[in-house]
Amino acid sequence: MNLGIKEHMRECEYSQISTSSSTPMESPHKKRTLKRRWEVFPGRNKFYCNGRIMMARQTGVFYLTLVLIVVTSGLFFAFDCPFLASTLTPAIPVIGGVLFFFVMGTLLRTSFSDPGVLPRATDDEAADLERQIDTVNGTSTGYRPPPRTKEIIINGQTVKLKYCFTCRIFRPPRASHCSLCDNCVERFDHHCPWVGNCVGKRNYRFFYMFILSLSFLTIFIFSFVLTHVVLRSHSAGFLTALKDSPASVLEVVVCFFSVWSIVGLSGFHTYLIGSNQTTNEDIKGSWSSKRGKENYNPYSHGNIFTNCCAALCGPFPPSLIDRRGFVVPDMVQPTPPTNGVTMYGATQSQSHMCDQDQCIQSTKFVLQAAATPLLQSEPVAIVDESSLPGRTLTGSPRASLPLGQPTPPTSSPNLTCESELLGHEAPETYPHLLTPEEAPSPPGMLPCGSPVGHGHNVPFYNPANQDSLHEDSIRGLVKLSSV
């Protein structure tokens, strides 16, 4: 018996009702999908791994670099290292492995990172900048002069900041726009197709370590491949050595034609780091003495050691584009309604504020209407049977109201006795009209036998009664507004 009850209670499951507030126009089960910033990135870059990897659009040369390094190193470890480790020392493959992994790490770090792309100006920022330029130029038209520059002073040297029409910003010092990636890059050095990315402020140190370590790896492989061929030729002859290790010939050819360019590139960038220049500045001759005796590099720290430490060991700058962030659409703030209707999507505090505003506005309006002198109100037209002078209102007046409509408020209160109203009959001449006595009386009517009755003359306008009614209505409205 108990088991049956327990099983029945287990079957009775209640679904929890969600009390989270949701707008009537939107289902609570539908989740809003937001796009990542890399999906709407305006440049010509490629993104992989959900925006974690950022590269240039032309990546064919990068894959060639990758294949050359991997294939040459793989042939060296497969055909040369076993003989060299057994003949000379086992440290040769270890040193070669360390150099290979260091080269691959710095290459991928240079190729997959943000080189220092500057974010483009928004529409509001671009419009504000246009207004500033028009104010400086003294023009209010939309004419855009071709050269747009700003001059600033850095360490006593005048530096020009150029305006980028694509990004709609004044580029910072040492920044330039890459035509291949279509981005402004901070401390732009050059666009390197071998690494498949721009080289700028955020990846220059990795690029320099890559070409420097690649130079050591190329020299290392080239020298020990020759050593392998020479040692084999001593025992079996030169042709026999080439037949026993045909991969050594391919390695020697690749390393021979690569070592000169790689070592030369490493030496050139070592000179740039020592003088704290970029490739772009050196090619343009920005700080060359040919432009003038007073022209000098304002970014140099004075000695080679300090310049090298600033370029290779300085603080790592953060990325400015937030490529993995979400694109949040602009939320339209609903305006508070003025007709007393609460809009969909308004919060509880907003609706409460709207109710308070409407209450204040309504009370204010009624108070103003009540404070208006009642003399300005028009009296109700009453049809009297007799138009003789001196005839009082106690006869048989007939109101000009059709049957079934309420009686409008008059300037004097209705003080008619209820019993007399019951006993009074409407004339047959106007069966479709109601007399003021037959009209529904408001609550709180005077009892029979009061000083003011049917047989007394009631003036059409009484200032004393009017003032008391005005005072009572204001008191009631003040109490209503306080509630």
Automatic annotation (TrEMBL):
Region (Disordered): 387-416
ATP-binding listed as a keyword: no
Gene encoding the protein: LOC115822356
Entry membrane topology: Multi-pass membrane protein
Annotated InterPro entries: Palmitoyltrfase_DHHC, PFA4/ZDH16/20/ERF2-like
Family, as annotated: Belongs to the DHHC palmitoyltransferase family.
Domain Palmitoyltransferase DHHC: 160-284
Primary localization class, coarse: membrane
Record's subcellular location: Membrane
Protein name: Palmitoyltransferase
Domain text: The DHHC domain is required for palmitoyltransferase activity.
Molecular function in Gene Ontology: protein-cysteine S-palmitoyltransferase activity
Segments passing through the bilayer: 61-79, 91-108, 206-229, 249-274
Keyword Phosphoprotein: no
